[in-house]
Design brief:
By secondary structure, the chain is an all-alpha fold. It has a domain of 227 residues. 69% of the residues lie in helices and 3% in strands. The protein is built from 15 helices and four strands. A two-stranded antiparallel sheet has the order 1-2. Strands 3-4 form a two-stranded antiparallel sheet. Strand 3 and strand 4 form a beta hairpin. Helix 4 runs antiparallel to helix 9, helix 5 packs antiparallel against helix 10 and helix 8 packs antiparallel against helix 9.
Length: 344
């Protein structure tokens, strides 16, 4: 499959890719100065933030400098079939999610303020373009379809915000969020047969750059990066779903691990009397980090392997969505409790 992917993915507009890559590496080269200018340096506190040294949260800026120009190039050079309205709405959403994250990196914003800004933006923009609203839930191997009718806008906003929150929760160990983004965009490329799509390539290449330097401990993705990435992936999932290239069961399974971990953490915090948005070190990747025989730099490889398994099982081993879901949920909690017991 990897060889097929490489063979099919021919480079679209190689010069723009080189130019955007040059900008990205320039951001990294001048990273310290940029980070100080924007005040986006993450300092360790030896409590929740245990990294070795102050680290620039440049991931979001790198993604922004590569993906947003690619969004313009896709529209003006490839004449996106959705037209100006789709281009404008998606651009607004990307900018808001990125800027809210950037402000949060600079000076922590209250969860209420972030939610209000993001949800309001979605409520204003999405209803103006029906192709960005999920109006029914269809499964690949189930015969029935759930029509959402008047609840469609609420379901769509909930789904986008859930992905935003899940990726934000997963972004706590080097390489986890970046590798998730790479897995998701590769899945979208394969399912939609968009191997030569310039915009999809731009997302993939920018994530590879961020992942490499993140694993090398040179930078963090930051809230700006997780916010921008989650909004991009969410809208692309909706787009390909509406184009009948994806089904809800497939989306559920590729998002399974960060999604189920977010649900567990949310209920765990609320049952303990804490805000569901309070910070802690009870995430799945945190427990992986506590296992002595696992080096921290390999945690993301274990995490992404476990993230790929549900859709792999569903695609190649069993077409029974209910069975796969039950097995995945059971396996997750067994592994979680074993990790929790081991780390105590």
């Amino acid at each position: 499959m990897i060889n097929t992917l490489i063979n099919e993915m021919s480079f679209s507009l190689p010069l723009p890719h080189l130019f955007l890559a040059f900008i990205s590496f320039s951001v990294i080269f001048f990273g310290e100065k940029i980070a100080r200018t924007f005040n986006i340096i993450d300092y360790p506190d030896n409590i929740r933030k245990t990294h070795d040294r102050p680290t620039a949260q440049l991931g979001g800026i790198i993604l922004f400098c590569y993906i947003i120009p690619a969004h313009f190039i896709e529209f003006f050079f490839f004449k996106n079939t959705y037209g100006l309205k789709y281009f404008s709405i998606t651009l607004i959403i990307y900018l808001v999610f990125f800027l809210v994250g950037l402000r949060d990196d600079q000076k922590s914003m209250s969860p209420t303020t972030k939610i209000w800004i993001l949800v309001t933006t979605l409520f204003i923009t999405l209803p103006t373009f029906q192709s960005l609203i999920v109006d029914k839930i269809a499964f690949k191997n189930l015969s029935y379809v759930i029509n959402l009718h008047g609840a469609s806008i609420y379901f769509t906003i909930f789904a986008i915000f859930a992905l935003y929150n899940a990726l934000n929760f997963a972004d706590g160990s080097n390489g986890v969020a970046g590798s998730l983004g790479i897995f998701w965009i590769l899945f979208l490329i394969i399912k939609s047969n968009n191997f030569s799509n310039f915009y999809y390539q731009a997302i993939l290449f920018s994530l590879l750059i961020v992942l490499y330097f993140n694993v090398k401990k040179k930078l963090f993705l930051g809230n700006s990066g997780s916010g921008l990435l989650s909004s991009i992936i969410a809208l692309l999932l909706i787009k390909e779903y509406k184009n009948n290239n994806l089904f809800c069961d497939e989306i559920f399974l590729i998002l399974f691990l960060p999604g189920i971990d977010m649900i567990r953490i949310t209920f765990q915090r609320m049952s303990g009397g804490f805000s569901p948005f309070s910070a802690d070190k009870q995430h799945f990747h945190h427990y992986l980090e506590k296992i002595t025989f696992i080096k921290k730099k390999f945690v993301f490889l274990i995490y992404i392997t476990l993230s790929i398994l549900p859709i792999f099982i569903y695609t190649y081993l069993s077409k029974n969505f209910y069975l796969v879901s039950v097995v995945c949920i059971t396996t997750y909690f067994v592994i979680f409790f074993l990790l929790k017991k081991k780390s105590i």
